[in-house]
Amino acid sequence: MASRRNIALYLVPAVALVTVFLVLPLVVVAILSTTRWVGVGTPEPVGFDNFSHLLTDPAFRRALANTVLWVVVGTVVHTPLCVLVALVVARRPRGWRFFRTAFFVPNVISATALALLWYFVFHVSLGPLNTLLRAAGLDDWARAWLSDPSTALGATMTPWVVYVGFGMVLFLTQISTIPREYYEAAQLDGASGLRQDLHITIPLIRRAIALQVLFVVGYALRSFEYPFIMTSGGPADSTMTLSLYIYRQMMTANQYGLSMAAGVVTLVVGIVLTALIFLGLRRAER
Amino acid sequence: MKRTTLAIAASAAVTLLLAACGSAVPDEDGGDDGTTAPGEEVRIEVMSNFTSDIARGEVLDELIAEFNAANEGTYEVVSTTEADWPTLQQRIRAMITAGTTPDLFLYNFNPTDLSREQSGALMDWSQYLAEDPEWAARFADVNIDALTMDGQVVGIPGDQSPALVYYHEDLLEQAGFSEFPQTWDEVVALGEALAPEGIGAMAMMTADDAWHTMNVFSYLATSAGGEDAYAPGTSLNNDAVVTAADYTERLLEVSTPDAVGANYSVSSANFLGKRAAAIIDGPWLISSIQSEVEDPCSVKVSPAPVLADSAIPAGYTITDSLNVWGAAKQDDPAREAAVVAWMKFFTSNESAVRMAVDGEYALAVQTELTDEDAERASCQMAQVLEITNAAPTAVVQMGRGITASAQEALPSLLEGLALGQRTPEDFAAALDEANAN
Question: Would the CB atoms of A45 and B6 count as touching at under 8 Å?
Answer without folding.
Answer: yes
